Prior knowledge:
By secondary structure, this protein is an all-alpha fold. It has helices at residues 4-24, 29-42, 47-75, 81-104, 107-127, 140-157, 162-170, 176-205, 219-239, 245-267, and strands at 213-214, 217-218.
Amino acid sequence: MIGFEWILAFLVLGAVVGFMAGLLGIGGGGIMVPVLTSIFLAQGVPIEQVVHMALGTSMASIIITSFASMRAHHKRGAVQWNVVKMMASGVIIGTFGATFLASSLKSAQLAIFFAIFMAYVSIQMAIDKKPKPSRELVSNKALFGGGTFIGIISALVSIGGGSLTVPFLVWQNVDLKKAIATSAAIGFPLSIAGTVGYMVNGMMHTTTSSGMVLGFVYLPGVILISIVSFFTAPLGAKMAHKLPVAKLKKIFALLLMLLSLKMLYSIL
């Protein structure tokens, strides 16, 4: 049985992740992976599997929120489905394939890569640098290639791809709001492919057999985080119009950096 303190930890994590996703338009992987790593270490998950479990559980927890986000943007007619169609196949292949790479890496290697990527995301967020729209939409092959690359990185750090997809689309003269909406739609198949990949690889690499763990996915964590984040994400989106988002982004960037460093410290 899962202890009450862990139930509470997952519920609080879900509330924070959902609210921040709605408020700042940022997927929860940056918060979830370091926090889940700490929780799983405290629960006694072996250190060589702890980051893999955090990545798989985080990826599965993104499914519900990314679906809700995709639906909301689709209702506003902001999703560029022609771009989604071309990028989604690349994203699925890249994400699913990269879970095999992640499973072959050590926890320390994954933690280092995660910390470096989050440092990049934090700096981008803090300086709020927008890519200059410099060209028209690239060819279908290039969209597929871009999707594959985004899928690979997203699987290794367990994000919905927004921090890479949005700049990639804005750079191609796609309006920012449409880029965010299209990125949200791409995040849904990405999270499913990543979850399936981490489940399959977990079954191949771990000896843990429990009704609560499916490969590298801890099911109680996924359920508790998803339920709460589903309700707090719209709340965050509503507050985005009332709170100083630019200032909050800088604070959140610092928080991401600190969480990544703490995760790195606890693994190394």
